[in-house]
Please model this.
Amino acid sequence: RLGGSGAVVNGYLVMAGGGTGTTDCSTPVTTVSSAPRDVYGGVGTWTDQAALPAATGWGKLLAAGGSLYYVGGQNAAGTAQSAVYYATPSGGTIGSWGTASNGLPNARSNFGATVWNNRLYAVGGAGTSTGCSGGVCDTVYVSPQLNSGGNITSAWSTTSTSFNVARSGLAAAAYANNLYIFGGVDSTGIYLSDT
Model:
């Protein structure tokens, strides 16, 4: 699938969302699949799990506090989404997804995402709200701490410092109390190679 996202939880690989169309995730899916990993990194048989509540591509699947979170993305019309779906697997089995009480502060697609200290970070991406120029954003959204997983019952923080060049299609990583972003494309279509 194009524009799908993966995460690891409870020793299982999980893949969610994405699209089966031939252009830019024009045919998004609700499909969620998981496969066990063995101690050597081998991957077992993939099985379908409970579907996402809505067909979405270019969102991000993240794991925090023993739960999975599918954040943002876009629908078949290419419209960025703000919903966050969550599930707490039992082993590799995902029985159902809920919609978090507090989704992203603004709709985002093609953003960077990572987890640090059981907080979800959604960075940059495509959108049309404050912090976006030409449809490309420079914002950093941070979820409340999700030590026990489950529903997001408090608002996301929007007070983190914005970065200097708005971008979508970027990668993000968190390590040692630092947030790193890599590459992406700016609002004029220039590919970025900075960190």
Observations:
- Residues 4 and 136 are 20 Å apart (CA to CA).
